[in-house]
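In full, the data:

***
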Amino acid sequence: MDKYFYKCFDCRKEYSKKEIEDNFIYLCPACGLIQKNQPLRGVLLIQYDYNAIKEKHTAGELFDLQPGKFWLYDYLWPLETVKGKLKRIEDASLNLVTLSSNCYLELSSKGERFYILDDSRNPTLSFKDRASSLVVLKAMQMGIKQIAAASTGNAGSSLAGICARLGLKSIIFVPKNIPESKRIQIQSFGAEVVIVDGDYDLAFDTCLEISKKNNWYNRNTAYNPLTIEGKKSSAYDIFISTRGKMPDIIFVPVGDGVIIAGLYKGLWELKELGWIKKIPRLIAVQAAGSDAIARYCRNQKFKYKPAGSIADSICAGAPRNLYMAYNAVVKSGGSAITVNDDEIIDAQKNCARKYGILIEPSSAASYAGYKKFCKSNETSGGKSLLLFTGNGLKDTSSLLKWNKEIKPFSCGAVNKKFAVK
């Protein structure tokens, strides 16, 4: 009997591992639907026998583990294992995809205290390594040698870097406005980069079309169920790091909706297993210029609108996992808010200068959202955690907006400037 199966988020139909994986099916065979500039329908979730897991395992077992090594609790992952070791993958390779083990931090300044899950120190410096690690390990077990993906930058560099480490080929489709520092990172890992003459939504659709024609394995966010499953590891790393003393509120930067959906999936599992009593409130933070999920949370209607923001990593006019993201907000008792580009840049600057952590604009959005909540006193009495999802060096153009140009000094001018008075 398989230890997991697939279940459609929309129609709730269930499918065996063999039916989905042997036929390289991504969306629900009954209701799955891909439409241009529209959220996906029929997104699949991976489910386990949680009652059986409860009988065999306890929460305390996880507290003995190091965060970042998700395969060590193999009963909660769709990987083939023998005595805790992954089949058909050399042990030496496993260390190459270990996520940051010191990602949970407490920050405080002038009476302000909050916690962060800092994924800016992952192997390729972003949260996307959580999904890419699982996708690539699964691909290796399935005998797959090349993987394609659409990306605004982080998912592409993540897949490219991890594929390079484990000997697979990656083909990455990116929008023409991708930050130069992200494009060069993807190229440096040896990926084949395809720049489409349009935005991320066009890159996503183009990647699906070309992948299908060439029979490539596809990592596109939400489309591949493993992207959601991989990102649930964030919930378990929080659980392990806090020894079960979970935050009350979690601020999540949201674009396509997969990070918040994956986080919720992990939190839901922890509650289903009886290892936590309640799910923290999830606050979806969106850039004002890319606010489709926030709009949907207000009126439950989706209307496509091109997106634009300095926070390119959360810039998506058609969030492919909109419905699951909305579900995560509602079921957790959370909400969705927006922050503008000025607030994002200010948050990036403050985080660097107050806490010594350099994050990219999408990560800064979660800090900006947190500050907005603090002003309205909505975090009063609660333990807040922020997701920092990407390193600041991934997009240096944003740093130029708040750092002044420094002009060279002659030797004489330097001596005069620092003359002892």
In short: The mean pLDDT is 94. The two ends are 81 Å apart (CA to CA).
